[in-house]
Amino acid sequence: MSQPDKRALLAAGLAAGEDDAALGARLRDAGVSAASAKYEVDRLAKDPMAAMLRRQAARMAKQGWLLANQQRLAFEADGGFVLAMLDKPAPDLFYRRYYDTNWPAKLTGVVDHWPALARWSLDHFERVAGHAMVEAQVGRDGDPEYELAKDDHRRLVRFGELIGWLRKGEASNDIYLTAYNSGTNAAALAILWEDLAPIDLLEARGDRDGFFWLGPKGTLTPWHHDLTNNLLVQVLGRKRVRMAPPWAFARMRNSRHCFSDWGNEPLPAGEGGAATPPVLETIIGPGEAIFLPVGWWHQVEALDLSASMSFTSFRRPNIHVEDYTSWGEIDR
Fold first, then answer.
1. CA–CA separation, 119 vs 141, rounded Å?
2. Distance CA 19, CA 35 (A)
């Protein structure tokens, strides 16, 4: 029978903020003798690494208290923990009450002037750009980490062939033309931008602003958070959007980069529990949009054949990646 790794057990306990009594119990529960457990715990008093772990655990506990206060305030707010619904919001109100406070909102009436709402269809796409070579994410179904490994799934396909496949109406998560493919597609599908128009809430960034999304019913973007504020605008079909707040970090099972180990779990809407985060849920249809603030976790599911645009060109600085360092493994 292998001996327990006493140092690893102690490190885990220290990181969790355990006192000497709890550390001793941890060792004994793992099969360490009482005398050996006492010796190991006693010598932590002279171990600078143990002291640092204890200070770090105290900092994390303080951060946890601060985040818990954010939850209390959200639950006690007028109306409770709900998603705001805004129709034709004035920019000043939107920025003051939602963008600046890092709170999501569902928006209507912000793209009523878009020709795309009347024009976009598979027939239109094929007629104006069926010949174009586009980049899509392909072969996602066979890879449980398809979102983390996006580069492995990049494929060039003729737009007309992709449209032909979409005409079958089959639900699938295997092929999806996403914002990640925009480096190629903004040029290849430039004609589609003629069906768009400026959005009053955003800065004008020229005629190629925004990121195009197209996929069948059944496409899934797993739980993650973005490194920018985003406006997701639905043009064709419907998408279900689930969101969890940044202050629910401890319940989001974040072990790598900006991705959650919840994956595509349909976490229920509501205030959550000890192990599950609070979740807001909505469905956006043609002409509707959702504001996704930076740091808010979200999962998106296409309920129909779906075409969307997303934008990051807000009237505020929106580069939050410069001091972001947690690209790799966070908690395993």
1. 31
2. 18
Q: What is the pLDDT of residues 239-263, one digit of tens each?
A: 999 999 999 999 999 999 999 999 9
DSSP state of 2: P
Q: Show the tokens assigned to 226.
A: 């973005």
Rounded to whole angstroms, the Cα distance separating 12 from 14 reads 6
What are the CA-CA distances from residue 137 to residues 24, 141, 155, 213, 220 (Å)?
51, 11, 6, 11, 12
For the entire predicted model, the pTM comes to 0.92
Angle at 237 between CA 235 and CA 240, to 5 degrees: 105
Give residues with Cβ within 8 angstroms of 94, minimum separation 6: 86, 105, 201, 291
Domains defined along the chain, listed by start: 6-74 (no CATH), 81-311 (2.60.120.650)
Q: Element (H or E) spanning 55, and its range?
A: helix 48-76
CA distance 42 to 46: 8
